[in-house]
Specification:
The chain has about 250 residues and is an alpha+beta fold. It has one domain. The protein has nine helices and nine strands. A four-stranded antiparallel sheet has the order 6-7-8-9. A hairpin with a 3-residue loop joins strand 8 and strand 9.
Length: about 250
């Protein structure tokens, strides 16, 4: 690959878009190259910035009296962000072992960011759950009474069976990481959001209402203060303006 691409230093200097473009063009080949370690460092830096953004949003929402709760009828209280636990490294290793190839960006998220659940109710914005609040559950710490590995494994096994029975219609496997925007608001909706696997690339494809690179999805969500879907209410924009300041670009 020639001289060092200096991805990390360029990324920190503000060339995030250019660095991601170069890494995506290399596809899975970067994992076998001498620059695989630097590519992972870029992903780790991305995750540290994402954690900063998540913590800032949660801190501001908490200060405004936001109630983080599950998307159930009881609105069971929960935490907006649970940092990586002692099993995070093992979870990242299990994902790679089970699914063969997992994008580096998702592995960095597991190890550095943790689980995020911004579903809840804002005191001045009663329908805040309809704003498609950011949710990413990879370690499964918000639901300690159930195994997220079993959940992932069930979906993987079912997809493999679909592949065997009807390969033309099985589609790609999507690791389910979040309910869709309807289920977040506790109404009937579609399939979950998640990462397309297996994928050896540095940054993977995130499947939600459409499909786009994971980091592009995160940048879009953070630009909107964690609530990207417009609800048509003026209150949403007033809340959003208070949330977006200080967001770091990934």
């Amino acid at each position: 690959m020639g001289s060092s691409p200096r991805w990390l230093s360029r990324y920190k200097d503000g060339q995030q878009d250019q660095v991601w473009q170069e890494l995506r063009l290399l596809g899975g080949a970067v994992r076998e190259s001498e620059w695989a370690g630097e590519a992972q460092l870029v992903c780790d830096e991305m995750a540290h910035r994402a954690r900063h953004n998540v913590e800032l949003i949660v801190e501001r929402l908490t200060a405004e009296g936001y109630r983080f709760h599950r998307n159930d009828d009881e609105e069971t209280p929960t935490r907006g962000h649970i940092p990586p636990g002692p099993g995070a490294e093992a979870q990242a290793a299990w994902l790679q072992e089970r699914f063969g190839a997992v994008p580096m960006t998702l592995l960095s998220w597991v190890r550095i960011v943790g689980d995020v659940w911004l579903v809840g109710t804002h005191p001045q914005w009663a329908s805040s759950a309809s704003g498609d609040p950011l949710v990413l559950q990879v370690e499964g710490t918000h639901h300690p009474d159930s195994s997220i590995r079993d959940y992932f494994d069930e979906g993987w096994t079912g997809w493999q069976q679909d592949q065997a029975d009807d390969p033309d219609n099985a589609g790609l496997f999507v690791l389910p990481l979040a309910p869709d925007r309807y289920h977040k608001a506790n109404v009937s909706g579609g399939g979950p959001y998640g990462m397309v696997l297996p994928d050896r690339c540095v940054d993977g494809l995130f499947n939600w209402e459409t499909t786009m690179p994971f980091v592009s999805y995160l940048n879009w969500v953070f630009r909107e203060g964690g609530f990207p879907w417009p609800s048509g209410e003026a209150t949403q924009w007033r809340v959003r303006r208070r949330l977006v300041g200080g967001m770091l670009r990934l």
